[in-house]
Amino acid sequence: MLPFDLADDEVFRKSTVGTGRWITIIAVLSASAVLSAIVCLQFGARFVGVHDMLRLLFLAPGESGDAAGDLDTVTTILLYVRLPRVVLGFLVGGCLATVGVAVQALLRNPLADPYVLGVSSGAALGVSVAVLFGVGSTILPVVVLPLCGFAGSLVALLVIYQIAASDGRLPIYSVLLAGVILNAVLSALIMFITSIMDPNRSFGMMIWLMGSLTAPAIPTLLVFSLYVLVCLGFLLKQARVLNIVAFGDEQARSLGIDTERTKRHIFLVSALMTGAVVSVSGMVGFIGMVVPHVVRLIVGADHRLVMPAAALVGGTFLMVADTFARTVLLPSELPVGIMTALVGGPFFVSLLIRRKDRML
Predict the structure, then answer these.
(1) d(CA 91, CA 33)
(2) In whole angstroms, how far apart are CA 158 and each of 72, 182, 245, 290?
(3) pTM of the predicted structure, to 2 decimals
């Protein structure tokens, strides 16, 4: 049985965590994320050992001659190439995993995530249209592109809702079917836009669509971090409400929760996060579906622990996947979306096989 089945009261009571366990798990995952980041900083076209990293931190003012020149090279590699990329990977992975937890809880379906439902494709279409008309290159791209992604993901959510809703309810299979169909249509539109661009922009667009974490400029990283922290803070505050909503709308309403307003707010914030993520990293799929399941298997089903744990695990996973993607075929680099799809695709199929009897 999947740990997502919160309808069983006994399962939920057993999965509720105490403060001590919460602190222990988050501390372990945080330490793992920091250690993983240090390892990811070391690998690339040039290996940077721990000794060089410590020398950069503590001995830079006293270095001179050849040592200073070597230190400048290490500084450039670490601070201006790898560190922004590692931070971006952690933020993107954390966002996608957290949004996946929220969407799965609201829809009460373990197969739901922004990529499968077509929300990511909606965001990609919004950014593609902005790039096609040159909006992103002329008007504050660091602000405008995430907003275009948000608009695209929001439109995709509204279309899914209109297709799937029946008598004010959202049947699970209808949502998934509508999402898969919309995803196919939006992907075709994105391919059409890419095909009418000039060859240089078209090639860059294709790389971006496959998922890319090329080192961002510092202003871009700062603005994106602001988007992420505000939205993550909102979703983490909804953890207790998601615990109740997971039991069903009627029970949540009996406890005084306005379920429809809660859903609207969480879906809107999820769309904003997805739009921002897609604008800086392209289509990085399956993290929002795979990571929440792995985390629930480890820590249980209490969203007060699942959401921050998923953010840490998702961020760590994407950091490591991106490091592997940029080093396995040196000097070439694989789009990180390929790595996540190779993991997420088989996982998605296994979930479908395990749950097909419930969906018929």
Answers:
(1) 12
(2) 51, 11, 21, 25
(3) 0.84
